[in-house]
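Give me structure tokens for this 147-residue protein.
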Amino acid sequence: MPNPKAVSKTTAPQELQKRRVQWAWNAVDTAASRGKKSDYLTEARKLPARLLASGLGQSLAYLYSKRKERNPATAQGRDLLYRHVSERVAEVLDKEPPGPEGAMPIVVELSAASYRRLSRELLTSAEWLKRFAEGRLKDTDGEGESS
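Here you go.
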């Protein structure tokens, strides 16, 4: 009979990975069903690099500030991505789903250790989001095809 402690050590990372994948797949599925393909794809592609270069706070602040810009088409894709990332933040931190302000009020209150942990988790989650967005939101007719 397997040692229960050994099983829990191997299943915890697998369960975390499963939650990341499910979140990313569902987020991209929502973007596809709402017709926000091109702008969502562009921002999802940039998110991992943005997180690495600027950090979690700056990346979220960027998406937060751009979600209501003048061009409604682009703003809707960024707003949807911001809402998806905000949902992931709440899930990772075991918080209630974020309100209209999204993750910003949550992130600014984090301790340094929690901030670092969340940053690593969102970077990994963003990589999954990018992969699924590139695979699902690219159309053969050219929509969503940008680098």
